[in-house]
Give the backbone structure.
Amino acid sequence: MSVVKSIEIVVPEDKVYLAGSSIDGRVVLSLNNTLINPMVKVELIGRGYLQWNEDVGADKDYSRDVVCNNKADYINKTKTFKIEGNWLDSGTHTFDFHFTLPARLPSTFTSRIGYVSYFLLASCSSRELILAKKKKYLLALTTLCLSLAPSMISLVKNIFCPSENVTFTTEIDNQTGKSIKRVVFTLYSNVLYVGFTTRSEPRTLEDRNVLLRLEPRLEAMPFEVTRITNIMSLPSLLPVSCMSLANEIMEIRYELVGTLYLPWSMSSIVARVPVLIGTIPTADMEESGSAPFTRAPSPLLC
């Protein structure tokens, strides 16, 4: 029978930890027998890893796959508990711990290319022999404080939190002489991965995915200005926008794209506005500029 019956990490379930916040919990160790020279510790670890294959020479007579990868360590802290007498009796023992996250760290993230993860790792050992260990993953979000430039789509505010409603107003100045009846809004996530080949050559990979799509009812009459207000509900868990690649392995951006389809034409007009996904919106970011959807001389084609 093993000396260690079980080891558990107790922290609030499903809690999201912001950058710079504290993590308080306890390690619960249950022993079947007395343990001599025990070492009980808990580690807070945050790391990221990317990997993808890139086809080199596809336009030539030969081609080969090159593996691109990258990794980063964001946090590594250890708390070793002091044990009086250097022994533990059989039964249950609890050890409280406290960690503080760095003020700057990327959000928890996972995709087919890579991940950013944070976890607690508790272990119990004796004479350098590990008797038991337990891992518990955490959800972390970085904080954000940025502003937006004026755009053709007007947002009610500049920063949104996961699970919030993105409310926006579109102004359509119809100078076509015909009714416009179709507009489509799409919220994209754009992730730029940064890696290196085995020869240390830098490589990047951009992954663009549709998060939300909305096609509201529209009747924009000829030679009139029509204003429509729409709402998109964000998922409850989203990585926070990350606009800087300093000490990072990826860059995360969100973009709201409005596509206005012109009547009796293969052309369309496209308006784009960055959407910032943050954690705690600030009061001085509640205003954003806006400009109308107008008929351009050379519209973008779909």
